[in-house]
Every structure is written in structure tokens, then in C-alpha cells.
Specification:
The structure is a single chain. This protein has a 5-stranded parallel β-sheet with strand order 2-3-1-4-5, with helices on both faces. It is an alpha/beta fold and 200 residues long. Helix 4 packs across helix 5. Helix content is 54%, strand content 12%. The two termini are 13 Å apart. It is globular. The structure holds adenosine-5'-diphosphate (ADP).
């Protein structure tokens, strides 16, 4: 099993930025958001179950999942959301595990926005939290997504609190008042630590 460092942080904290820097050092990145899309890609058998439950209209003619329609259905009814999560979460979890096992680098990074919320810390040997204050998260997300503070705050309300996340952390990368050069230096420091911990 490849030594696995879970990376998490709230929206706009800088997870992707940090993960990209580890990737530049040759570390394999396993991205939960990518896997969550892959498990419902056209042709995946789980789509049959989704179509049977929600109705065939949620599967488009090209075999892809109609995400907008799914979001609407789930928004209407939390039981729908629970059903879908019960179906997909084990598949996502299993695929993350396999990809980490197969990772061909000294250690791998498992990037999961909802690592703490979905109790996936047990897949990780170590947890790195990318930390930013709520103000910083909002300012960066608004700029990146061309959205507004209310939208970002609504998303933040569905995520773990800063405190809950920090409680789960083995390491914290402070991404508040730091520029890219400083972040790179912090990543390099962590990289050295992870090489040692992984026994590479
Ligand atoms: P996440 O993946 O956690 O949602 P991102 O890595 O996408 O966050 O970062 C959010 C936005 O903030 C991006 O546009 C990114 O370029 C920017 N950003 C991240 N870290 C910094 C930093 N230290 N200084 C300035 N901008 C940053």
C-alpha cells in the first residue's frame, strides 16, 4: 500500500494549488472530485440503478448523467440524496483505495474536499489540512468562480468548520497571507517529511 497523505480544506482554501505543487515534485494525485465523476461516466453499470430509481430521463441520449436534473431531484428530497450517496460513496471509496494502492510514487496525495465530513480519514496514513480563514476563502472563491459571497457562504455552511478540520489534521499548511513562493517552500518541507515517513 502506497503511503497516503489525505489533503483537505474548505472551498477556496487552496487544495488544488497545493496539490499541483506536489504533482510538480512527481507525486501522484488521486482526486476525489475526478473519481466522483468517473463512477457515473457513460457506460458505468451503476447508471442503470440510477435510471431505474430516478427515471430514465436522468440519463441523456449519449449515456451521460443529467447532473442538473439530478441536482434538482436531490434538492427536492433528502431521501433521494441519501439513496444516491449510499449507492455511490462505497464505489468512490473503493476506487480511491485502488488508485492509491497503484500509485507509482514514493507516497500519494488523496485530495478530498469532504475528507472529514465523509469520514475518509481512515484511508489516509496522514492528513494535511490546507488552512485559510473564512474571509480569505470567500475572497479567493469569489474571484476564481466569478460568484458572490452569499453563494460561497452557502457552500461553506455545508462543509466542516475550520475547527473540525484542524482537529483532524496531522499537518497544517497555512495558506492565509502567503504568496506562491512561500507556499512552494512549505510544500517542499512537507514533501521531505513525507518521503521520510513513507520510508522512501
Ligand atoms: P480549493 O481547491 O481549495 O477550492 P484553489 O487551490 O482553487 O482552492 O484556490 C482558490 C483560488 O485562490 C485559486 O484561484 C487560486 O489560484 C488562489 N490561491 C490559492 N492560494 C493562493 C495564495 N497563497 N495567494 C493567492 N491566491 C491563491
Amino acid at each position: 500500500m502506497t503511503y497516503t497523505v489525505g489533503v483537505t480544506g474548505g472551498i477556496g482554501s487552496g487544495k488544488s494549488t497545493v496539490a499541483n505543487l506536489f504533482a510538480e515534485l512527481g507525486i501522484v494525485i488521486v482526486d476525489a472530485d475526478v473519481i466522483a465523476r468517473e463512477v457515473v461516466a457513460p457506460g458505468e453499470p451503476v447508471l442503470d440503478a440510477i435510471g431505474a430509481y430516478f427515471g430514465p430521463e436522468v440519463i441523456a441520449a449519449d449515456g451521460s448523467l443529467n447532473r442538473a436534473l439530478m441536482r434538482e431531484r436531490i434538492f427536492e428530497n433528502t431521501a433521494y440524496r441519501h439513496w444516491l450517496e449510499a449507492l455511490l460513496h462505497p464505489l468512490i471509496r473503493e476506487r480511491m483505495l485502488v488508485e492509491c494502492q497503484n500509485a507509482r510514487s514514493a507516497y500519494c496525495l488523496l485530495v478530498v474536499p469532504l475528507l472529514v465530513e465523509n469520514r475518509l480519514t481512515d484511508l489516509c496514513d496522514r492528513v494535511l489540512v490546507v488552512d485559510a480563514s473564512a474571509e480569505v476563502q470567500i475572497a479567493r472563491s469569489v474571484r476564481r468562480d466569478n460568484s458572490n459571497a452569499a453563494q460561497i457562504k452557502a457552500i461553506m455552511a455545508t462543509q466542516a468548520s475550520r475547527e473540525q478540520r484542524l482537529n483532524a489534521a496531522d499537518d497544517v499548511l497555512d495558506n492565509n497571507d502567503r504568496d506562491l513562493t512561500q507556499i512552494k517552500a512549505a510544500v517542499l518541507q512537507l514533501h521531505k517529511q513525507y518521503l521520510e515517513l513513507s520510508g522512501a
